[in-house]
Design goal:
heterodimer, A: 288 residues, mainly alpha, ABC transporter involved in vitamin B12 uptake, BtuC, two-stranded antiparallel ribbon, two-stranded antiparallel sheet, globular, B: mainly alpha, 21 helices, 70% helix
């Protein structure tokens, strides 16, 4: 029982991390048809910015997380304006350009701070554990889950209650029609990139808390699982991404624990292939 | 219209043989089936061209001979290589460059010729690499049978996974191939049954390799093997692209729906491209095993596929020499930039310049974005673009012919 509770909490914590990466990825693909291979790099930017603020500049933990999120958002907006936008009429080149950025950014981080993992010191309040149903669970799992829930609620509110949310939803549904109605959908592109980058960078800052350290390859390693979540949840669907990320996190943790180590990662990746083959429309799923 | 002309090409093979030798750099547009609509390609050796131009058409042969005799030369190439041309260190680097040039050429069969964006090509490379190594280590087979086993495994894997992956199209195909390759990379990392050696990989057994392929003194032999693999890859890609199947590939790349409307099933043709490319990658794995003396898990990662993608796009996808050029340049730069980073000239620079310069992957990634952004056709189309820019609006046909590709 203790083990099950711990595995559930860890799985949901990991799922929350996946959700933070996948929600932006899903919105970006749904709206713009760009599979953003640089999304993992944005996570790394957030992680290193938060680490730098807390370890080098001596800021408090929450200020560091905020700094990481803001830096990641800025990087994401810059990416959209400088790299994606000029290639608007060449969809395949957009993907290739994000591949290039996804290679270059982690390399730059590696050049500045080295290839080794840097330890991330959590504040005392978040370093401890709590006991839940007899299991001893690290607090940071709940921090991640809380952050993911807040992001989910905010995204839902933004999409359903604001005018720009309406434009984004309509754009995911039929971009050409939105343009035909006289709405500049490109502004929504930048906005969606900003939101996605903010969520990914927040995920990066909290990933430092979850893993206890930051390293340049972290984001890219998480990206493949975020792809699984995006495809499972349906492209462009935030709620779908939330459900899928919880499922993926749980499956991975349980399979890794009860079968051979590594089998969980393998099963999730194979799950992606199977899902795409059985339900190719998972890619064209609409906003839920 | 392009599709139509490429389909008529399947019915009149003579048209194919005219374009084949007709173009050196122009052959790129000729192989797409578009070149024949431009009279320039046919004229270039028909009328007033001089004997010199005719002789220049044989530059690949001349280059090949130069590459063949390179190990006998002690020519110093300062800046480009560390030691003289024929020294083992230089030969090893050139052989790696040739190998990656060939791998990129094989990958372009998917990306540039058929229009399939596969993110899992490294899987077949790694399959050839690991299966050959394991056939020697576990089954105690000599090199040649082991290489046959390795290439057969890679081909079978490509057939199996290609048949499954090609059931989805577009970005779905890219992601399925990525998923399979990632599964392969995880398997190799996890070291099932102690077979793959996990993080460290497995070294090739020196006792089973022919003695002429072992030791630093025999680097020249390995170099010739890499060169032979490159020539083989170029020949296979050239032949298949010029064949009726290659015409259908070009049609699929341009507009898959139209190929279907013409009564052809793209699935089978795409699968052929996938399997041929997979087999070539598997053979490349064998060459890599010989060159580096072992199998390492880095060969299976998605980064390896992304490197191939960068090479192809850098050089120019869908062109005859572009992927080779990109592969040579990328591999050479990757090695030499590492040396540059450790040199005193860079170490003295201020941090703002030194840090980016010390990361080859940052420079190559940045260069890649620039090429995608500024040079859509890659380096191979650069001369044509320059010529078009110089000719200005005087030759609109030529510009259109190059731009459209």
């Amino acid at each position: 029982m203790n083990t099950v509770v711990l595995l559930v909490c860890t799985g949901l914590g990991l799922g929350a991390l996946y959700f933070l990466v996948a929600s932006g990825l899903s919105l970006i693909f749904g709206l713009m048809d760009v599979l953003n291979f640089a999304h993992g790099a944005l996570l790394s930017v957030g992680a290193y910015a938060a680490w730098w603020a807390s370890a080098e500049a001596g800021a408090g933990f929450w200020w560091a997380v905020l700094f990481g999120t803001v830096t990641g958002t800025a990087a994401s907006v810059l990416l959209e304006l400088a790299v994606i936008r000029p290639l608007y009429s060449r969809p395949r080149d957009q993907i290739l350009a994000t591949v290039g950025v996804g290679l270059a950014l982690p390399a730059l981080i590696m050049g500045i701070w080295g290839a080794d993992a840097r330890p991330f010191q959590p504040p005392a309040a978040l370093a401890g554990t709590v006991s839940l149903l007899g299991a001893v669970v690290p607090v940071n799992r709940f921090v991640l889950m809380g952050a993911a829930l807040v992001v989910l609620v905010l995204l839902r509110l933004f999409l359903s209650r604001t005018r720009y949310g309406l434009v984004v939803r309509a754009g995911v549904e039929d971009r050409a029609m939105v343009t035909a109605l006289g709405i500049d959908v490109r502004r929504a592109f930048t906005l969606v990139f900003a939101i996605g980058g903010a969520a990914a960078a927040l995920g990066g800052a909290l990933a430092g808390l979850y893993f206890g350290s930051v390293n340049p390859g972290q984001g890219t390693g998480l990206l493949i699982f975020a792809f699984v979540v995006v495809v499972m949840g349906g492209m462009g669907s935030v709620t779908g991404a939330a459900v899928a990320s919880a499922a993926v996190g749980l499956v991975q943790q349980f399979a890794n624990y009860y079968t051979a180590a590594g089998l969980g990662d393998l099963s999730v990746v194979v799950l992606l292939a199977v899902l795409l083959l059985v339900r190719p429309r998972g890619l064209t799923g609409r906003l839920a | 219209m392009t599709t139509k002309s490429s389909i008529t090409g399947t019915e009149s093979p003579t048209g194919v043989t005219v374009t084949g030798p007709g173009g050196t750099s122009d052959g790129d547009s000729g192989t797409t089936g578009r070149g024949r609509t431009i009279p320039r390609t046919g004229e270039s050796f028909g009328d007033g061209s001089t004997a010199l131009r005719r002789a220049l058409r044989w530059w690949p042969i001349a280059l090949l001979i130069l590459f063949l005799v390179a190990p006998y030369s002690a020519l110093p190439v300062p800046g480009l290589l560390d030691g003289p041309l024929g020294s083992p260190g230089s030969l090893q680097l050139i052989a790696l460059c040739l190998l990656y040039g060939a791998l990129a050429t094989g990958y372009d069969l998917l990306l540039g010729r058929t229009g399939l964006l596969s993110f899992g090509h490294a899987l077949y490379f790694a399959a050839g690499l690991y299966c050959t190594d394991l056939a020697m280590l576990e089954l105690r087979l000599p090199l040649l049978p082991a290489a046959a086993v390795g290439i057969a495994c890679a081909t079978l894997l490509a057939l199996l996974l290609g048949a499954v992956s090609l059931r989805v199209t577009g970005i779905g195909f890219s992601m399925v191939t990525l998923a399979f390759a990632q599964a392969g990379a995880i398997l190799v990392q996890r070291n099932p049954g102690g077979l793959t050696g996990g993080e460290e990989g497995r070294a090739a057994p020196a006792d089973l390799l022919p003695s002429s392929l072992v030791g630093i003194g025999n680097t020249a032999n390995l170099y010739w093997i890499a060169l032979g693999y490159l020539v083989l890859t170029l020949a296979i890609v050239h032949c298949t692209v010029g064949s009726p199947i290659g015409r259908v590939w070009a049609g699929i790349r341009e507009n898959e729906r139209r190929v279907e409307v013409l009564g052809l099933r793209p699935y089978g043709y795409k699968l052929i491209a996938f399997v041929v490319a997979g087999a070539l990658a598997g053979a490349g794995g064998v060459v890599h095993l010989l060159l580096t003396g072992g199998a390492t898990p880095q060969s299976a990662t998605s980064d390896a596929t992304l490197a191939l993608l960068v090479m192809v796009v850098l050089g120019g996808s869908g062109t005859r020499w572009g992927p080779l050029l990109g592969g040579l340049l990328y591999t050479w730069a990757g090695h030499r930039l590492g040396d540059l980073a450790n040199s005193s000239a860079v170490a003295d620079l201020p941090a703002a310049l030194r840090v980016p310069l010390s990361q080859p992957l940052f420079l190559l990634g940045g260069l890649f974005v620039l090429v995608v952004y500024l040079l859509p056709g890659g380096l191979a189309r650069l001369p044509a673009r320059l010529r078009a820019a110089r000719a200005g609006s005087a030759l609109p046909v030529r510009i259109r012919g190059n731009e459209a590709a």
